[in-house]
Design goal:
Layout (H helix, E strand, L loop, with lengths): L3 H9 L4 H10 L6 H17 L7 H16 L3 H16 L6 H15 L10 H21 L19 H14 L7 H8 L2 H7 L6 H4 L8 H13 L11 H8 L7 H4 L1 H11 L5 H13 L5 H10 L1 H11 L6 H11 L20 H14 L9 H7 L7 H4 L5 H9 L4 H4 L4 E3 L5 H6 L26 E3 L3 H13 L3 E2 L1
Parallel strand pairs: 1-2, 2-3
Organism: Massilia aquatica
Pfam family, one: DUF6892
InterPro entries: DUF6892
Length: about 475
């Protein structure tokens, strides 16, 4: 049975409400399913009645949402029960009735974002979404006629009060409540509707909405369809929604953009569809693709040099027969590439250090701690300027990046700097390791020092601290004989 204090706080909207909800959520495992559901029903009523102008509105909603998530985490049955209730209420709403629409809008706003959690943390929510997805997708279609019609008298935050607000929140549920990978099919089902929704209201969607397409088998065609739709609109109509996110992702080659992965297919389709574009439309596309995200000609030149896919897109634009400020500027940049292609640098025949991991300890000390070995290496800047191939940090950073490793192998440290090293220490969080292996978790022996033969390069080394136990066991005696303390 719910406590009297909690019931009183719910019924009176007292100042203790948030505290009582948080206490209930903290102790959810000791609460019966019956009492948990009783609280869900009470809080569902609360969010439908609590006006968005209430001074503690956002705080109350977060506390309520955490309670719902805690309840749903208990089992698939609990999550299904929660999703069924919300879906039933939304489906049965008469969206033309001002009072009903406002109440349903407030319920949806409270439920749509899985507050303070990463997507995929609640497997039971995914189950609940999967059970109700057909009805939710049908609801989205039924809301399309109201996409630009004002339905909600008191909208929240940046919402405008039109039906598109509700559609956007329903789409958000497919991002927040689906798993990181497991819900790809559900996201694809929702993502398939994006062209239909953009036709109804170009303001629908954001960068998270665009992610719904990531697992869709026809994602390249859908992205092209969106681009084609946006470029048939006025500048004002495409000021928000997914337009800028789509164009931003088009040339984002850091390894995390599914849009960039599909660039060749997108280029092939746009080569056909842009034949009906005016010079102004293609020039605007060129601006948004090459001159919006990339801030200067150096960045544009480097990307053209390293990426065959980007060069093919540039050729499509240049060969279109159109002319314009940005098309002509791109043509100049492309022609400046010439025929020469970069050659990978060769490593010196005899590296300065035998053990790279020992050398990395030295580089950490001189480059990042003492800042005497310059220039300071930054992996993102290195990747930006490296043109032999595309290095995609967000894709390749879960292992040692070979070219970065080669850079440090070839780096020559002047003897006068080596003479300044009196102490070396190992810390898995040191910056040098995030340069070589950007997403290293600090576990494993990837950077363990195997040899101490390079000690002779450091004439004034007196101490090696915080070294792994295996290193201490193997080398403490040898180093001790050289007057070097090890721990």
């Amino acid at each position: 049975m719910l406590s009297k204090d909690l019931l009183y706080a719910l019924q009176t909207r007292s100042k203790r409400l948030i505290r009582e909800l948080e206490s209930f959520t903290t102790n959810i495992k000791s609460v019966s399913a019956q009492d948990g559901w009783a609280l869900v029903i009470e809080t569902m009523t609360l969010v439908r009645e609590l006006t968005p102008t209430h001074e503690k509105y956002s705080h109350v909603l977060k506390a309520v949402n955490r309670t719902w998530m805690a309840f749903a985490e208990q089992s698939d049955t609990a999550a299904d029960q929660l999703y069924l209730y919300v879906t039933d209420w939304l489906v049965q709403t008469d969206w033309r009735h001002e009072g009903e629409a406002q109440a349903a809008y407030q319920l949806l706003y409270a439920f749509h974002a899985n507050h303070l959690r990463c997507p995929g943390t609640n497997a039971h929510l995914l189950h609940g979404l999967r059970q109700q997805s057909p009805r939710l997708l049908s609801l989205i279609r039924n809301l399309v006629p109201y996409a630009t019609q004002t339905l909600f008298k008191v909208p929240v935050q940046d919402h405008t009060g039109v039906g598109g607000d509700a559609i956007g929140m329903l789409l958000d549920m497919y991002f927040y409540h689906a798993g990181l990978v497991e819900g790809d099919d559900l996201r694809a089902d929702a993502g398939h509707m994006l062209p239909l929704l953009v036709r109804a209201n170009p303001q629908i969607g954001n960068n998270l909405t665009l992610c719904l397409l990531s697992g869709h088998p026809q994602r390249a065609n859908l992205i092209c369809e969106l681009i084609e739709l946006y470029f048939d609109l006025s500048v004002e109509e495409r000021m928000s929604g997914m337009f800028h996110s789509t164009m931003w992702e088009l040339l984002d080659n850091d390894g995390a953009s599914f849009v960039y992965e599909e660039l060749d297919k997108i280029t092939a389709r746009l080569a056909v569809s842009c034949a009906r574009w005016t010079s102004e439309q293609l020039d605007t596309f060129t601006r948004d693709a090459f001159f919006f995200r990339l801030s200067n000609d150096e960045d544009r030149h480097l990307l053209l040099e390293k990426s065959a896919k980007v060069r093919r897109l540039a050729c499509m634009i240049i060969d279109s027969g159109h002319s314009g400020t940005h098309i002509d500027a791109l043509r100049t940049l492309y022609n400046a590439l010439g025929d020469a292609r970069p050659v990978a640098p060769q490593l010196a025949a005899a590296p300065q250090f035998e053990d790279l991991n020992f050398k990395l300890l030295v580089i950490q000390k001189l480059m990042y701690d003492q800042e005497t070995l310059l220039p300071r290496f930054d992996v993102e800047e290195f990747v930006r300027k490296y043109t032999v191939r595309e290095i995609m940090i967000k894709e390749e950073g879960y292992d040692v990046i070979p070219e970065v490793q080669q850079y440090f192998e070839a780096l020559v440290i002047p003897p006068h700097l080596l003479a300044q090293v009196e102490e070396l220490s190992f810390d898995a969080s040191d910056e040098i390791y995030s340069q070589v292996f950007p997403y290293w978790d600090g576990e494993g022996d990837t950077f363990d020092v195997a040899s101490v033969r390079d000690i002779g390069l450091l004439p004034n080394l007196k101490r090696m601290s915080y070294m792994p136990d295996g290193f201490v066991e193997r080398h403490a005696t040898t180093l001790g004989q050289r007057g070097i303390d090890v721990d």
